[in-house]
Amino acid sequence: GVNDCKDANTADCDGQSLDILQIDCGQVCEDLGGCTGGTAGNCTNPGDDTACGTIACNLRYGASGSICYPRQDITSARCEGVNDCKDPNTADCDGQSLSATLQIDCGQVCEDLGGCTGGTAGSCTNPGDDTACGTIDCSSRYEASGRKCYYKQDITSARCEGVNDCKDPNSADCNSQLNGAEQMNCDTECKQLNGCTGGTAGSCGNVANGTDPYTDCSVTGPAGNPPCQTGNCQGGACDTNAITCYVDGDSDGYGSNTTATRCGSCGSGYSSNNNDCCDSDNRAKPGGAFQTTISNCSTWDFDCSGGVTVNPTSYESGCTGLVTCTCDQRILSITSAGCGQTKNINYCLGCGGETCDISAGGSFVVECK
After folding, report:
1. 16 vs 119: CA distance, rounded Å
2. pLDDT: is 311 or 274 the higher one?
3. Percent of the chain scored above 70 by pLDDT?
4. Cys-Cys with 180: which of 75, 151, 303, 338 at CB 3.0–4.6 Å?
5. Can you tell me the distance from the alpha carbon of 185 to that of 188, in angstroms, rounded to the nearest whole number?
6. What span, in angstroms and rounded, lies between the C-alpha atoms of 153 and 50?
């Protein structure tokens, strides 16, 4: 205007052509900011720049359940700073969504997904246990403890043997299980437990003849007697010298029917037989003789024959004679051998002074009860 020069570095300059380079923001991930009017320009980060191209993220991983996926490539917001694109397959990718391309699936029985984070690809691992294995049956596996056999407890934990591999029922997989219910008990003298290992059930058998490794077979015999057992096993039982004896109440060497277990020998008051017919009268026994008084058992059986013990007496009176038996006797028979006559008990009662008259010649024998 009149008397008015244009002002320096004001809007008066804005129409001027561009002169010397102030700043160049033409690099990747650079935008020019400012550079207008009185504001000098500066380089800024635009956040994205197609010049960065596609940032690969296929070697960065993330998990979804039991499946591992690679990350999606970066195709936007690719700038990390001025003149600085994001780096491929680095932590710059970790915020990316998972790709639809499956890396690895660990969804089988006894599989867990391991790794699958950052730059570590996933792998399937054995978790040790998986409820999908159910209960592993061990009812046909056995283990011994002493002379008892036990079933193995079922496996309800640590059921995985390997990836996609549950432990097998009734196999060696059960051997490390604790013992469960009792299957067989052989804990008695002179018995041993056979089998009871792995898949073989236990059974009881005899220990070898000799000393029982678990017991000494030392058992006291009947009262007043030494132990009846030798301390060794024979044929599955403690070897014993116990014998069966019979009570000998009258000490005549013949026992009654009352038994008594003795050790080694029967000893006094006992007999090895039960042949006595009156154990309260030592006159009555096998081979006993005629007695003139009745026995303590109220019988006249003194020789245990089951009948009457007789005392034959000979009278030499030709064929004529009188025979008198006392009242506690009875004539059994009168035989006159020479005269050919026989009188029986029914003919001669012979009690109370009665007599039997033999009227015949020759000798005779009278048997009185």
Report:
1. 55
2. 274
3. 77
4. 151
5. 8
6. 67
Whether 62 and 74 have beta carbons less than 8 Å apart is answered as no
Query: For residue range 106-120, what is the model confidence (pLDDT) as tens digits?
Result: 999 999 999 999 999
pTM for this model (two decimals) = 0.48
> What token pair was written down for 307?
């009948």
Please state, in angstroms and rounded to a whole number, the distance separating the CA atoms of residues 71 and 251: 111
The residue written with tokens 């391309």 in the block is 101
Cα–Cα distance list, 10 to 19, 33, 39, 80 (Å): 16, 20, 11, 37
Question: Which residues sit opposite 176 in a β-bridge?
Answer: none
pLDDT tens per residue across span 293-341: 888 998 888 899 887 765 554 443 444 444 444 434 444 444 444 444 4
Residue with tokens 């043997």: 161
Phi then psi for residue 66, to 5 deg, are -100, 10
Q: Output the CA torsion sign for 249, 255, 257, 263.
A: positive
Cβ–Cβ under 8 Å, residues 130 and 159: yes
